Structures
1.
Amino acid sequence: MRKTLTTMLTKGLVATTGLGLAVAAPIAAASSAQALPAIMIYKVQYDSPGSDTGSDTSLNAEYVVIKNTTRSNRVLTGWTLRDKTGYTYRFPTFTLKAGASVTVHTGRGSATSTHRYYNKSWYVWNNTGDTAYLKNASGTTVDTCTWKGAGTTKYC
């Protein structure tokens, strides 16, 4: 027992209590959850409610929410959001505040710190399945979100 306890102590596998008792610690730690990306695609509303009329109201009800999961502001200038076909929204000079989200709508509107617009006259996201790609200014894919089949919304 002493040799085993000594081996476990030298390998950091034993913790001591304040009473001089040795307690074996677990050899493997529980697997940690995968960390969220700093900037991520949080939600895609790929099928706007009602009929696809092509109006700005209908187009803007199709959108992607991008979230900053960090405690610091992140510059998204030059970042892109695109679909499989290649319809691309490029962020102009833009900073996403710490912990904040920005919604990128398909239609037209006035850009703010929380709402941006593709300025498209027809829908970007396919209701039957598609993939949203978020790439940084260097063109590296930061996050993706894929959906197939029925539904209207995908939380990523």
2.
Amino acid sequence: MTNSSHSPAEHHCESPDCGCGNVDVSAALRVVVITLSDTRTIENDPSGDRIVALLKDVGHELAERIVITDDPDPLRESIQAFVADDSVDAIITTGGTGIAPRDLAVDVIEDLLEVSLPGFGEHFRAVSIQEIGPKAMLSRATAGRIGRVVVFALPGSTGAVTTAMNHCVLPIIRHASALVKA
């Protein structure tokens, strides 16, 4: 059976026993975590720490973790280098998803995406609005595919990262990665 012949219900699986025969949704993924900040370092990055901890809690591997300035060129170059690395399955960024003048992560990432997942940002904002109210609408969190790598752009606050990881990223990351590699 090819992926194109899966029923819509099969594409909503979240566990290895979902019956979606062609995709391995149990494999550990190699994930890159990129923090965008003009003030953070690896030693002082609670949102990056949270992403790494949550990934490891469910059995994923950290391929690499970097902190770069909130500038378009270093982000673009970093993402392109990681996408070119066949051992990388996913990239998660934190920071730069708001509306401040320096928040350019979404603009860079959306320019690189070959396939966008608008439902990711929509779901994140729907969940977040229940937690923080209308301020959730100020987030431009997004996700999609570049080559054979899934990319998730999350806000910079640790609370928003926790919400995004638990409600949006972790439930789909294995399945999304398997689909882009199929």
3.
Amino acid sequence: MQLMILDDRRTLGDLLRNRMNELGIRQKDLMDERLTTTTISNIITGKKNVSKKTISYLCQKLDWELEQIPQYLENLEQIKIDQSKQIRLQLKAIETDVGSKQALEKIKEIISSDDPYILATIEYLKGKCYARKGKWERARDHYFYSIRFYDAHPEIRNSNLKSASFNELARVYYNQNQYEEALKCARKGKECFIQNGERKYFQFHLQISEAIYLDNLGLPVEALKVLEKMWKYQSEIETETLLNMYSLQSILYNKLKLYDEAVKNIEVAIEIARLGKHYDHIFELWTTLGVSYKNLGNIHFAKICFDTASQLQDKVRSKHLLLAYNYTESGKMYLSERDTKRASEVLTNAVKLSKKANDGTRQLEAQTALGECYLLQDRFLEAVQQFHEAYGLANKLSFLEQECNLTLKLALCYEGRDIVKYNRYYALFYQRSVQLLSGGEPIMLQVSKSFPQPEREIQPEPPEG
């Protein structure tokens, strides 16, 4: 055994380094006529050009006997196991409160380890810390590092850290309005998920996220299919994700004009959210209920719902995002009643809040509605400005259907006012329409002086791990 440990100089070096740390001894404290700093360094770094006698001499200076190295090694292995357990517990504690200001500093203070599970978890948590700060590039880098550690070490396969990292990567892309990339990551996370592994909740996080991204890409039927597969596991899903499912299903029902089904769905969800004091969900559900009643033609009920949601604004966390949703929908309601003064007030706030929330989808809808409101007030230049900004955003987000509608609105704005711009926007409308039709997704474009706009509703946030 002694010969074997002498052959494994790296393990021996680790053992002696650990002994020095235990005794609080530095290399210069061990120097004498037989031991130079170079020799000591060669021993603890595992170099093989040091004799057995010299190693034995160093052991004696550390109050060890070379013959007892196997026993010391066994003790060291136990120390490493204990340290690994301690670090894992520390990481779990950090993950519990990863949103705190001290989380990143606590991660940096963790002692070095060669445990691949720990290394992958550290990168994953660093990614979450930077994502909370809105530092998307740095967050992405750390998630990819975590995935690389996972792929290089099959022994940590059951940790599901790869699926967790893909889930968080998807959230990063989602927050940057890159929905196609978000969808790709969510699907990759689903593919590599280990059913009997750790972090079992991620299989549901990834599925609800996939449905959210599909909806953002204008594929509500596909999103609904994903949700339908999830309901049979309802008893296994935690409340937060379950409420996301109810919220998204209600939104999809509204988009598919199944308003009565949406109302029934929301009424169940509101009770669950109310009992658990999930105020963000309560706010969102009451707003969505208002949309359902508005679409059913019951404006009185819709106003009650929108007002009920707005009274909860001091209790919600995602204030900018949720208020933008409420203001956009209530603004559109006032617009349908031709109450343009109230509509312009509310929609102006919706645009500001959606920009603060960096919610491209909501901003696009709010600006389109505000443009329609200005047009009804004969505020031509302000209407054109809103439609033009909305068109640029739709182009950036690759929302081809919205591009079609906005180029048509801009063409109609210039009709009878500026023949050159009218022809330019009408030609652009024609190009976008052909592009959309050639993509195999034909749409019916409504042309009228009231500028109807397809409804888009807020989606629940993809769940964080």
